[in-house]
Amino acid sequence: MDDETQKKEYIERVKAVQGRLKSRFDSFTALTDPAKLALAKQLTDQQGTIDPEIEGLKSTENQRDLSIKFHWGHNHRFSEDFSVTGRMGNRHINLMAQFLVRYGLPDTHFEGKDVIDVGCWTGGTTLLLKAMGAANVLALEEVQKYARTARILTQDVYEQDGISCEGTNLYDLETSKKYDIAYFPGVIYHLSDPVLALRRLFNALKDGGEILVESAGLNDPRNICRFDGNRVMHDTEGEDVTKLNRGGWNWFLPSASCLERWMIEAGFEDMDCFFSPATSRVFGYGRRRRHVEITRAGLSDRRIP
User: Fold this and answer.
1) What percent of the chain has pLDDT over 70?
2) What confidence tens digit (pLDDT) does each residue in 172-227 have?
3) What is the pLDDT of residues 267-295, one digit of tens each?
């Protein structure tokens, strides 16, 4: 089978799983209670509002617009008459489908598991994990306005037990509770210290725990990454970059081989990293088999275990 045929076959398999997951998510998030729908409407009405103060920012200068201006995260259908289009569309569905297909995971893989959801935005991924049967989800989001929205959405609108939404930076993650899975899509390339972030998650997992990572990255067989940094402007949708800096989100964009090396450095084993033909992004899987010491030389946080 040639590469093009394999690519088409992979994409078709992913699409089939996407259909199943979207149906499951839409069913799980359907609302009929007028009071719940009204509360959901209040949350979605925040779109477009600008508030740097809640994030502890003195001004909008050199800050990314997603931290300042409210954007809904993922597409969400509350009822037949009420839905919202998110900045990320159906990426929560599409990425989950790719993880399941690539790594041969069943739809039941998250059932009964304790999961860390990194970068939950307004809660779409968190609700998807619960729809797939996760027992408990620790949802992390450093943007306070989104963490608050995700908390209200999951706990007040949907009244889901076993969800904790914390407005915290991943670097500050400290937990005595150990988790089965770290779900880490679309975040690592936004971080200035990706190895430290991976180590935080390594330390939060049980022995035998898994990590699922997804990132913007490079289609290159070499062990390399591209550095953008936070002064690169990203002018999209005609927004004025002098008003809101669209930079500050893409730090290091790794190849699959580079992501694997980062994961090894953090302590993970059994890695499987690849560049996806469906989305032109990098995916990674790893497992914490046991505690291993991290190399201290040059480590940015020498207190980390």
Assistant:
1) 94
2) 998 889 999 999 999 999 999 999 999 999 999 999 999 999 999 999 999 999 99
3) 999 999 999 988 999 999 999 999 999 99
pLDDT band at 66 (very low <50, low <70, confident <90, very high): confident
Q: Which of 228, 281, 267, 289 is nearest to 102 (CA)?
A: 281
For 258, residues 6+ apart whose C-beta sits below 8 A from its C-beta are 217, 218, 223, 224, 225
Per-residue model confidence (pLDDT) at position 229: 82
DSSP states of 148-211: HHHHHIIIIIS--TTEEEE---GGG---SS-EEEEEEES-GGG-S-HHHHHHHHHHHEEEEEEE
**C-alpha distances in Å from residue 200, one per residue of 160, 164, 304:** 26, 18, 8
Quote the tokens at residue 235: 């002018």
Q: Which among 209, 215, 200 has a CA at the least distance from the CA of 260?
A: 215
Report helix angle 3-28 to 124-131, nearest 10.
Answer: 90
**Residue 124 near residue 92, CB atoms below 8 Å:** yes
Identify the residue with better confidence: 146 or 244: 146
Q: How far is CA 132 from CA 75, 190, 201, 267, in A?
A: 17, 27, 21, 28
